[in-house]
Amino acid sequence: MSSSRSKSSILDKPLSKGKGEVSLALYALLFSEIVQYCQNRSHSIQELQNKLSEIGQDVGTRLLDLYFVRERNSKREIKLLNMLLFVKSTLWKVLFGKEADKLEHANDDEKTYYIIEKDALINKFISVPKDKGSLNCATFNAGIIEAVLTKGGFPAKVTAHWHKGTTYMVKFDDSVITRDKSLDDR
Amino acid sequence: MSRQTSRLDAKKVNSELLTLTYGALVSQMLKETENVEDVNKQLERIGYNMGVRLIEDFLARTTSNRCLEMRETADKIQQAFKLYLSMQPTVTSWSSSGDEFSLVWDQCPLSEWVEMPNNGLKYCALIPGAIRGALQMVQLDVQCWFVQDQLKGDAVTELRVKYIKRLEDAVPAGED
């Protein structure tokens, strides 16, 4: 369009320290608009949640590298448990100001983990209508987790559920569990 | 039990979360909408909806009085930028009649890390929408448009705000 495109690309700028803050009210309103935007384009709760997750994944994809470079000296995690702890602690702390409350492993399924958060920031101002009881807008966060794990080399499906607050159910690919075991054996 | 040390003020969120969430929304819209003009319009609309509700928060927090002239209004808008986006635009370029001014900034949390497609997208259309929505709720009808945009290669981003008229009767919220 214009001939004088900006000279410095984003890659030429120094990495921000990530200490900037903006108003929660503004963020909550933006998120509510996002939910409405998705709702207008979907016919079912499932569809709405898929869209929210998709937008979350867009965010997660961009967070993955940013946080490993900035918070972890560019060292990626290769162990499953450490990766999950990274999500629960580092990622959540930097992104939402507090760690997620709990990380649990399903008793009956080694592929399944739960990340539990009592009060998800994103749900703070959201009241779910009675006829949409199963809707959990923290599916957006589930999307963030899914992208961070999957793009970090731990393919997984993540869903959000109402259980002890919000529980993110992480189901890893079989290959992830197999690989992690072989790392243990060495 | 995990630690619950909170780094952030309870009323604040990490600005990167906003940056990326907004970016994800815009790119989602671009994917789902054919026409860029429609995306611009939708973003403006979203901003408008937000502004309509943000003004209440603003009035509650700042206990502002009614503004008697546009210069006061401009100050309040500047204050709102600080409060909500932690940025400080400069108010400048007043028209001689005092009913039109510019807000100029060189950094905005919404437009961090953005690389623009070359298609006429108004990435920050949310902001003029929010100003229009907020002012409408205090009976001011204004027009806002971008004169310069950093994302399109200009040195700064300049948003022009023009006073149109005073709305005599308050319009019910959410309606055009």
Verbal overview:
The complex is a heterodimer of chains A (186) and B (176). Chain A is 46% helix and 15% strand. Chain A is globular, with a radius of gyration of 18 Å. Chain A has five helices and five strands; from the N terminus they run βαααββαββα. Chain B is of the alpha+beta class and 176 residues long. Chain B has one domain: Trafficking protein particle complex subunit 3 (Muramoyl-pentapeptide Carboxypeptidase, domain 2). Chain B has helices at residues 15-32, 36-62, 70-85, 126-136, and strands at residues 12-14, 90-92, 100-105, 140-148, 157-166. Chain B has a four-stranded antiparallel beta sheet with strand order 2-3-5-4, with helices on one face. In chain B, β2 (90-92) and β3 (100-105) form a beta hairpin. In chain B, α2 crosses α4. β1 of chain A pairs antiparallel with β1 (12-14) of chain B, so a sheet runs across the interface. Chain A: It is found in: Endoplasmic reticulum; Golgi apparatus, cis-Golgi network. Chain A: One of its GO terms (cellular component) is TRAPPI protein complex.
